[in-house]
Design goal:
- The structure is a single chain.
- This protein has helices spanning 3-36, 40-45, 49-53, 58-64; strands at 77-79, 82-86, 91-97, 100-111, 114-117, 120-121.
- It is of the alpha+beta class.
- The protein has a single domain, classed as Nuclear Transport Factor 2, Chain: A (Roll).
- Strands 1, 2, 3, 4, 5 and 6 form a six-stranded antiparallel sheet that branches.
- The radius of gyration is 16 Å and the shape is globular.
């Protein structure tokens, strides 16, 4: 009988995680789609306030960065209000605000034993 409560907890955790995955993935994809389309204003609207502030003349600057994106490598990792999406060419980090998920760091490259190096935020 102990397995039934554990199974229910696992199902609830999985369901909650799946509910998070869609919005996180959509926010990351929307950002990279805007960049690829040359829509700097839309890309900046998908950034966290701090990440946007870090880019002087954001709509122009965001299009000049080396943001390669690519296909997702597995699902997003969600940790409360923080998330990570690994893409073929880089990694993006997001934060959940009242208005939804926003990109807090993008164009990030992992470095063994060191923090990520990011084109935006980080």
């Amino acid at each position: 009988m102990r397995t039934l409560p554990l199974l229910l907890v696992a199902l609830v955790v999985t369901a909650c995680s799946a509910q998070q995955d869609g919005p996180v993935s959509q926010a990351a994809a929307g950002f990279y789609t805007a960049v690829a389309a040359g829509d700097g204003a839309r890309a900046c609207a998908l950034l966290s306030p701090r990440a946007e502030e870090d880019l002087e003349d954001c709509p122009r600057a965001v299009l000049e960065l080396d943001l390669r994106g690519g296909a997702p490598l597995g699902g997003p990792r969600v940790y409360g209000d923080e998330a990570q999406v690994r893409l073929a060419a880089d990694t993006v980090f997001l934060h959940r605000f009242a208005a939804g998920w926003r990109v807090s760091a993008a164009g990030c490259e992992g470095r063994p034993g060191l923090p990520y190096r990011c084109e935006i935020g980080g």
